[in-house]
Amino acid sequence: MNREMIGLNNVSKAFADMAVLKDISFRINDGEIFGLLGPSGAGKTSVIKIISGQIKSDSGSVHILGNVIDNVSSRIYEKFGVVLDQPGLYDRLSCYDNLLIFAEIYGIDKLEIGSVLERVGLSEARKRPVEKISKGMKQRLVLARAIMHRPQILLLDEPTGALDPGTAHQIHELILEQKANGMAVLLTTHNMVEASKLCDRIVLLHEGSVIEAGSPDDICRKYDHQHRIRILLKNGEQRELINEPAAAPVLYDYLSQGKIESIHSSEPNLETVFMELTGRKLEE
Amino acid sequence: MRKVLAIQKKQWKETLKNKEALIQFVMFPVMALIMTRSVKIPDVSGNFFVTLFAAMYVGMAPLTSTASIIAEEKEKNTLRILRMSNVTALQYLVSIGGYIMLMCLMGTAVFVVIGGYGGGDLVLFILVMTAGIMVSILIGAVIGLVCNSQMSTAAAVIPVMLMFSFLPMIATFNDQVKKIADYVYSQQVSNILSGIGNTKPERGSFIIIGINFGLAAILFATVYRRNK
Q1: Is there a domain that residue A235 lies in?
Q2: A185-220 as b/e, with b when 16 or more CB fall inside 10 Å?
Q3: Do A65 and A189 share a structural domain?
Q4: Nearest residue of B to residue A142 by CA position?
Q5: Nearest beta carbon to residue A77 from set B6, B13, B84
Q6: What is the pLDDT of residues A19-29, one digit of tens each?
């Protein structure tokens, strides 16, 4: 049975007169990657800050590992691993020394440093100063720092923002590895491909409100108004069929005659769902 | 304690790789050494440059380094990461304050060697330097906590540092300035240091340093509560 690691119930937050979160509720279980998807200013980072105890919500309740956040000891945050939008690394120190500080803070064995550096593919760079490694390597180091003490909850705030696709893929693999280890992962992103690939469930945030929630596939299916199948034939022609039993004979003919080059359903992606709901793009 | 030591260890490594930070701790002791060895002024105490630079050191090194370390950690987001690793604001400030105190006491040791202090003079020298350094660390921490970036910290710390470190020197040339400077800890540190070996320190000097420390501590506590 899944264990609830994080729970938000009707959480609201405002800065001055501006509401940044309005009545947000969701749960995250162990072994699950949960995505907060929304454009800049949607309230994603505020959620991370509330969960990590950096700011307090104005109303509603937050549960961490079964305890109300207001009643927990600050030691509970040692069970968190955090990747923020800024790396927060000591540039003059080596990759190893950056991890050593936190190994000593958490009181864990120094042997873990070598092991985690190997897991993120930075063994070779262990002695190099952080100021002399690439952006992708820095992000892997940040992830190494976040998982080194084997936390139960991983908070990832835009972990692949501005990374090239190859490095982003490496980070994705590492995140999936943590999920397989039973960690609860909260991922904020405005990248719908990343969310579709990694997340078991997501919420779409817009101006501080949850506008849709569920698994990426379920959400996309829910907004599939067209119910169409697009077929590209080998002669270059494109056909579009309504996804209903009447289309079956036509499709059968194409298939039996070996005419089909590719076939796609017309269900929307998260980007188009978001556009339909808000009139805005996710990456704005 | 484990967290305090981890942060101090990190700070030592950082300083060794940061020439700008290192120079703040080394500059005045080295200048005192050079000037004492190379310049002899008739009718002026042989330790003139030691006490002069030691008083300036108290007003400059701990103040600027505390402020700049805190500002850099805030700007580069490393402080936020430390805080999210359950390092409390107090643990962090004790770590940084302790580290700077230790660095400055190493500088103080150099002044002691150059000045050739011993016995009661040595104890008094170290005691007064320690008190002055503590006040400066508190003022530096206030500036570091209040400012949001390294740039704004530099803009705030330079006039404050110049005031505290150069006030004793300017006061020797201007009686009006001296009247004001007498209420400032760095002036009293300078007065006590200059009198070592010649005159008994006045009780009033210790009281003024104590009051300065108290005011800096209150200011620090107020700012700390707002920013923790």
Answers
A1: yes
A2: bbbbbbbbebbbebbebbbbbbbbbbebeeebeebb
A3: yes
A4: B81
A5: B84
A6: 889 999 999 99
